Amino acid sequence: MAPPPVQGQVGLTRRELERELAWMLRSVPENPKEFMKLLTQTVVTLMDKNNEAIARGLAQRESAGTGARGNG
Question: CA-CA distance, 26 to 57, in Å (whole number)?
Fold first, then answer.
């Protein structure tokens, strides 16, 4: 479970992204083609995880009644 968000933050923190990246790159293939495949999968996975964290954060804000409001 992710720690509570920092004030105003939506999505994963830099530290959370770094931890996820370190975990995914724990064993790096020597073959350049396999490395590129791993790198591509890693980027997409990090983006998916961050998007999920953003969605959770926005849903929590909406349920708490602190959603973003426009200036107009």
Answer: 28
d(CA 49, CA 3): 14
C-alpha–C-alpha distance, residues 14 and 58, integer Å: 18
Q: What is the DSSP string of 44-65?
A: HHHHHHHHHHHHHHHHHHHHHT
Strands (E), 4-48: none
Q: Which two three-digit tokens encode residue 57?
A: 């954060």
The model's pLDDT over 15-39, given as tens digits with 9 standing for 90+, comes to 999 999 999 999 999 999 999 999 9
CA 60, CA 64: separation in Å to the nearest integer? 6
Render pLDDT for 49-71 as a digit per residue (tens, 0 to 9).
999 999 998 998 888 876 555 44
